[in-house]
Structure formats: structure tokens, C-alpha cells
Amino acid sequence: MLKDSRAFSGFSVNDIPAARRFYADTLGLDVSEANGRLTVHLAGGGTVLIYPKPHHEPATYTVLNFPVADIEAAVDGLIERGVRFERYEGMPTDDRGIFRAGGPPIAWFTDPAGNVLSVLESEPQA
């Protein structure tokens, strides 16, 4: 029934202009705006809808993951752009915030609304 639907994910924020600056300027993603909502255009054709929500509460889980070939370079580049990486109790990370135990190396950060995002090291996709 939905096999051929071009599904997309979405999440809320409390400040659309701040989200636009973060996703477009800080992260360098293609972002469009219509009807007070943002669409983040991802590599490979996927999209994410970001919408305003009164009384927004940030997600307590990772809402968007960015696979990268070199996590150290990605983390360093994001730090240079002002991104701060999260450190969670019980999740040992290195001095830059990269967790290397139990799966691919991953580092978490938040958008201006407090939603959790990550970069994780992954083999390049063909």
C-alpha cells in the first residue's frame, strides 16, 4: 500500500529562523522554506520536514543521523562552526565527544531547539 510512497521524517522546533540558520549555515545543508516550515534536502533525495510547535519539547533520542567517511574530520569541522558535542553519562567519549564502543564511531550534538543529531562513521554509499 505505501511501498511506493516517498516517505519523509519530520520533527518540531521552537524557532524556525534559528533552525534555518543552523541547518543551512552551520551544517551547510540545502534548506527551503514554505508555509512557515522548513524542508531539509538530504543527499540521495531524502527530505526532513521541520515545523514549528508551540510548547516544543526536544526529542530525547537521535532524530537525524549523518553518515560520514571520516568522523574526526566531520567533528573538527563542526566544532569550527560552533557545534558543541554532547557527552552522556555511561557513554565514554574521547575529548571531542566521539563514542567508539559498541558500533561505528558516533558523536551527538543538538540543534538550537535541543533535538539530538549525530555524525557517525560509515563506509561511503555507492
Give a short synopsis of this structure.
Helices cover 17% and strands 31% of the residues.
Shape: globular
Spans of at least 5 consecutive residues with low confidence: none
**Average pLDDT, to the nearest integer?**
93
Q: What spatial order of strands do you see in the largest sheet?
A: 1-4-3-2
The N- and C-terminal alpha carbons lie at a distance of: 28 Å
Secondary structure: helix percent:
10-25%
Give the H and E element order. Answer: EHEEEEHEE
Summed up, the helix count is 2
Per DSSP E runs of 2 or more residues, the count of β-strands stands at: 7
Strand content: 25-35%
Would you mind describing this structure in some detail?
The chain contains 2 helices and 7 strands. It is of the alpha/beta class. The strands form 2 sheets. The chain has a 4-stranded mixed β-sheet with strand order 1-4-3-2, with helices on one face. The radius of gyration is 15 Å and the shape is globular. The mean pLDDT is 93.
